[in-house]
Design a protein that fits this description.
Layout: H1 13-27, H2 29-35, H3 49-69, H4 78-99, H5 113-119, H6 129-158, H7 165-179, H8 187-192, H9 200-229, H10 237-249, H11 255-280, H12 286-296, E1 299-301, H13 303-321, E2 335-339, E3 349-351, E4 361-365, E5 372-374, H14 379-385, H15 390-399, H16 406-409, H17 415-431, H18 438-463, H19 481-490, H20 496-508, H21 515-534, H22 540-548, H23 555-563
Parallel strand pairs: 2-4
Antiparallel strand pairs: 1-5, 3-4
Helix pairs in contact: 1-2, 1-3, 3-4, 4-10, 5-6, 6-9, 7-9, 11-12, 11-18, 14-17, 17-21, 18-19, 18-21, 19-20, 21-23
Length: 565
């Protein structure tokens, strides 16, 4: 669907949405790189208050244009209606966050302007000298981007709007890893080391400038911002939390019901985990059995070896699922296994393909310095991050972008929709029998338990709720970050460094972590409603492909739309 970006006053909603994407790319070149827009490749966003206001003003203008578009003939068709609902909901949620000045205290160990600034280099092509020349130009833009980010945080200081001390301390530590030390030239220097000799001086100088900019930001956060932020609560309270819940989930949740659901899932999963643990180490608790598997279970030795193993796992899943439970286009079948750069958060993650698929979808494994990788913690996670999880959904969105709108399949994404699908994908692989022994199934249940624990402590900590009387953990007390960390440690098979990183993540991205379980619930409800409507004629493959071709939807709409397929 060709897009007229010069005049959207008489365009239908999908054209308005795609015109918004084009205008956003001008203001946010990192989004352009995610989409594969070559013209964005040597620039970085303006993260200053003025830059944030420019993006907010674009959202306001787009909402005005959308109001006109919704009155035009043809706007009431299902594709136009669905796009319009998403665009209005997303931009309204984003403006609510902006208007509350959240950008003035945006410090997070995973989701912040400085993380975007570094991570975008991992998405840039580096096959030719011309590509590396573009990398050098973007590296030279890092100091201005870092300074503009600092301007926003300094404006927050002036208004006594601070990030929590845990976020600040963690990011200071992360930036120190990026900077390097006496025996480590730093992340940017390492990145350009594989560039061509013809551009060596230019690349090294640009990398040095980027590293110095990160060092200046680190020093300011450590020496000026952190002392000023001392005493700021790490939790955000009910009002801010509700705003972020809408942003991450596309719905206004009944938070008390969601908290109770988290506890119900905790008890259900705990019982299943005990049964699987008994098969592995009779008499052991689930986490004792997982600890036993760390040394005695199936494992992959070596960083490159685990990257290859994960690639093979995804390739095998594609071969088994394509034509049986999914119908995949050839370009969707391509996904790459990668090792995450040092200084990343501890959790694995996925990056989407560009819209033209010149950059494939990729999964990323942070090694945290380890060289031995127990399989029980990898299998279900890669069904989540890769196939049939994030990769099948987000690559399918890119594949059908021309039939929907680029907005619905890219920047209009709702975290709880995508994370809910990925958790549903884990469950699907269990339903289909891919978790072929107790070891792998206990790992899957441990992943599910982590998501249930997220619902409990993310809502519980930020709202300071009471721990229920039937809890095996501190009944009657009110949640604090300290109790949240202890609870996670007791009910998690992962290393302490991972657990601590996760807690900091929840405190810095309030409302995001609950979307996994609540999104999965919406996907399951939608599937069961469609199954009930079709009876014996229900076709799971057809339903999966129709569901993955809807594009983004918030949880307000997801289950209802899935039920009609």
């Amino acid at each position: 669907m060709p897009v007229d970006t010069t005049d959207t006053s008489t365009s239908l909603p999908r054209r308005v949405a795609d015109a918004y994407v084009d205008a956003l790319v001008e203001l946010d070149p990192i989004t352009g790189t995610f989409l594969g827009v070559a013209e964005s490749a040597d620039r970085l966003p303006d993260y200053s208050p003025a830059g944030h206001e420019a993006r907010a003003e674009l959202a306001r203008r787009t909402l005005d244009r959308l109001a006109v578009a919704e009155t035009l003939p043809g706007a009431d068709t299902a594709p136009e209606r669905r796009c319009a609902r998403l665009l209005r909901e997303r931009l309204t949620a984003e403006l609510a966050v902006h208007d509350a000045d959240e950008s003035l205290r945006a410090v997070s160990n995973l989701f912040s302007p400085i993380h975007e600034t570094r991570d975008v280099f991992n998405l840039m092509p580096t096959e030719t000298d011309a590509h590396w020349a573009t990398v050098a130009r973007r590296l030279r833009a890092v100091p201005a981007a870092a300074d503009s980010y600092r301007q926003s945080l300094a404006a927050g200081v002036e208004r006594s709007l601070f990030a929590g001390p845990r976020q600040v301390a963690t990011v200071v530590e992360q930036l120190g890893e990026w900077i390097g030390g006496p025996d480590d030239a730093g992340w940017f220097a390492d990145f350009v080391a594989k560039g061509p000799d013809a551009l060596r001086a230019e690349l090294d100088a640009a990398a040095e400038g980027a590293t110095e900019a990160v060092a200046r930001l680190r020093d300011w956060l450590r020496d000026s911002y952190a002392p000023a932020a001392e005493g700021t609560p790490d939790v955000v309270g009910r009002e801010r939390y509700a705003r972020w819940v809408r942003y991450w989930n596309g719905t206004d949740l009944d938070l008390d019901e969601a908290y109770a659901y988290g506890w119900a899932e905790f008890h259900r999963l705990h019982a299943e985990m005990r049964a699987e643990a008994e098969k592995i180490l009779p008499g052991a608790t689930p986490w004792e059995a997982l600890s036993h598997l760390d040394t005695a279970g199936e494992a992959v030795e070596g960083v490159e070896e685990v990257r290859v193993w994960l690639q093979e796992l995804m390739d095998e899943a594609i071969e088994a699922l394509d034509g049986t439970h999914f119908e995949l286009a050839e370009r969707v079948r391509r996904v790459e296994s990668m090792i995450a750069p040092p200084g990343s958060a501890a959790a694995p993650y996925y990056t989407s393909p560009s819209l033209d698929f010149t950059r494939p979808g990729r999964t990323w494994l942070p090694t945290l310095g380890e060289t031995r990788f127990p399989v029980y913690g990898l299998v279900s996670t890669w069904y989540h991050e890769g196939v049939p999880g994030h990769h099948l959904q987000l690559a399918q969105w890119a594949h059908v972008a021309e039939d929907l709108s680029r907005y619905q399949t890219t920047v209009g994404g709702v975290s709880a929709n995508a994370e809910g699908w990925a958790l549903y994908a884990e469950r699907l692989m269990d339903e289909l029998g891919f978790l072929r022994n107790a070891e792998r199934r206990l790992g899957y249940l441990d992943c599910q338990m982590m998501r249930a624990v997220r619902v409990i402590i993310d809502i519980g900590m930020h709202l300071e709720l009471e721990i229920p009387a039937d809890s095996p953990f501190h009944p009657g007390e009110r949640w604090t970050p300290e109790l949240g960390l202890e609870f996670m440690r007791r009910h998690n098979g992962r290393p302490a460094e991972f657990v601590e990183s996760e807690l900091v993540r929840y405190l810095g991205m309030p409302g995001q972590a609950i979307g996994y379980k609540l999104g999965e619930r919406a996907w399951l409800r939608g599937r069961e409603a469609a199954r009930a409507a079709h009876g014996e004629a229900f076709d799971a493959k057809k339903w999966h492909m129709a569901a993955l071709s809807l594009g983004s939807l918030g949880l307000d709409d997801l289950a209802a739309e899935l039920a009609t397929l």
